[in-house]
């Protein structure tokens, strides 16, 4: 289904065949043509991206497959333009060929976007109150991150009241292999999967603590997995400690990492064990809210 805005754009594309309208008619500012207002609003629009999104929007549950010719007719653009759009979207996995290549349907990338959105929405909505509570308990910034390939992405953040300089915000991306939170998110990967993710011989180094090879990274994250949490000082940034624990979903997979960021100079050794336990407890509670149920070992008969 087209949106009202899409219909207005299509109408403007065929204005040369329409009867000119009075500049002061209802719907526009006095003395300013509607087209002038629309042009001012549309100056930041990227036409190619707009066409690609409109193309994806033509598919529906009632029309799962469409031909390039039909898409060109609906979008009122040349077939050559549609072919280029389809080639780009096919390369990125957003459409795929069917019926011997004559028609197209939505690809798995669209489904992945939808699932990722729903999962992140549930994750952040459930996690934000827990971050706020943890922050109030330990009085340090708390974060929730997910992994996107070789990067971690901050999806929720709770800022402490005490002064603390940080350049990390929601949406910030950092290298997974070089961060404490990233190490947590890599725990489920086998050595073969890590080698696929990092095919290079040497990993990029960000600090003295950064693992240099995939083998070093694998050994590190396996120790983290057995421990159940990660605590490291100066792993990515000097004089900064991070405590992090895994958040698991109903399948048992690590879906996020929950952590606290602490200036190393302010760490009280007497409180450290308690803070680790509080971080682990918050991560476990979020896992429970995501329907994770740890396996209970059965007693021997």
Automatic annotation (TrEMBL):
<dbReference type="InterPro" id="IPR036388">
    <property type="entry name" value="WH-like_DNA-bd_sf"/>
</dbReference>
<dbReference type="Pfam" id="PF01614">
    <property type="entry name" value="IclR_C"/>
</dbReference>
<feature type="domain" description="HTH iclR-type">
    <location>
        <begin position="46"/>
        <end position="108"/>
    </location>
</feature>
<dbReference type="InterPro" id="IPR050707">
    <property type="entry name" value="HTH_MetabolicPath_Reg"/>
</dbReference>
<dbReference type="InterPro" id="IPR036390">
    <property type="entry name" value="WH_DNA-bd_sf"/>
</dbReference>
<protein>
    <submittedName>
        <fullName>Transcriptional regulator, IclR family</fullName>
    </submittedName>
</protein>
<feature type="compositionally biased region" description="Basic and acidic residues">
    <location>
        <begin position="1"/>
        <end position="10"/>
    </location>
</feature>
<dbReference type="GO" id="GO:0003700">
    <property type="term" value="F:DNA-binding transcription factor activity"/>
</dbReference>
<feature type="domain" description="IclR-ED">
    <location>
        <begin position="109"/>
        <end position="292"/>
    </location>
</feature>
<dbReference type="InterPro" id="IPR029016">
    <property type="entry name" value="GAF-like_dom_sf"/>
</dbReference>
<keyword id="KW-0804">Transcription</keyword>
<dbReference type="GO" id="GO:0003677">
    <property type="term" value="F:DNA binding"/>
</dbReference>
<dbReference type="Pfam" id="PF09339">
    <property type="entry name" value="HTH_IclR"/>
</dbReference>
<feature type="region of interest" description="Disordered">
    <location>
        <begin position="1"/>
        <end position="41"/>
    </location>
</feature>
<dbReference type="InterPro" id="IPR005471">
    <property type="entry name" value="Tscrpt_reg_IclR_N"/>
</dbReference>
<keyword id="KW-0238">DNA-binding</keyword>
<keyword id="KW-0805">Transcription regulation</keyword>
<dbReference type="GO" id="GO:0045892">
    <property type="term" value="P:negative regulation of DNA-templated transcription"/>
</dbReference>
<dbReference type="InterPro" id="IPR011991">
    <property type="entry name" value="ArsR-like_HTH"/>
</dbReference>
<dbReference type="InterPro" id="IPR014757">
    <property type="entry name" value="Tscrpt_reg_IclR_C"/>
</dbReference>
């Amino acid at each position: 289904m087209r949106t009202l805005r899409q219909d207005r754009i299509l109408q403007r594309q065929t204005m040369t065949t329409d009867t000119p309208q009075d500049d002061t008619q209802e719907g526009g500012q006095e003395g300013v043509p509607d087209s002038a207002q629309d042009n001012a609003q549309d100056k930041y629009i990227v036409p190619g991206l707009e066409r690609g999104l409109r193309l994806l929007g033509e598919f529906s549950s009632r029309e799962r497959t469409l031909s390039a010719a039909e898409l060109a007719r609906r979008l009122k653009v040349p077939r050559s333009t549609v072919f280029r759009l389809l080639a780009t979207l096919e390369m990125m996995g957003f459409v795929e060929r069917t019926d011997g290549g004559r028609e197209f349907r939505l690809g798995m990338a669209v489904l992945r976007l939808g699932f990722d959105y729903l999962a992140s929405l549930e994750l952040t909505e459930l996690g934000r109150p827990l971050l706020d509570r943890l922050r109030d308990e330990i009085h340090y910034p708390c974060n929730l991150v997910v992994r996107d390939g070789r990067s971690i992405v901050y999806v929720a953040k709770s800022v402490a009241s005490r002064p603390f300089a940080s350049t990390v915000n929601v949406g910030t991306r950092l290298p997974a292999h070089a961060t404490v939170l990233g190490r947590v998110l890599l725990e489920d990967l086998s050595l073969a999967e890590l080698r696929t993710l990092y095919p290079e011989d040497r990993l990029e180094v960000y600090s003295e603590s950064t693992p240099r090879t995939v083998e070093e990274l694998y050994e590190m994250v396996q120790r983290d997995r057995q421990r159940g949490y990660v605590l490291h000082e100066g792993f990515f940034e000097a004089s900064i400690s991070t405590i992090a624990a895994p958040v698991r979903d109903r399948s048992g997979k690590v879906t996020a990492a929950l952590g606290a960021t602490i200036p190393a100079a302010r760490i009280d050794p007497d409180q450290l064990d308690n803070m680790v336990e509080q971080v682990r407890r918050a991560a476990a509670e979020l896992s429970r809210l995501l329907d994770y149920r740890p396996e209970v070992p059965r007693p021997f008969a």
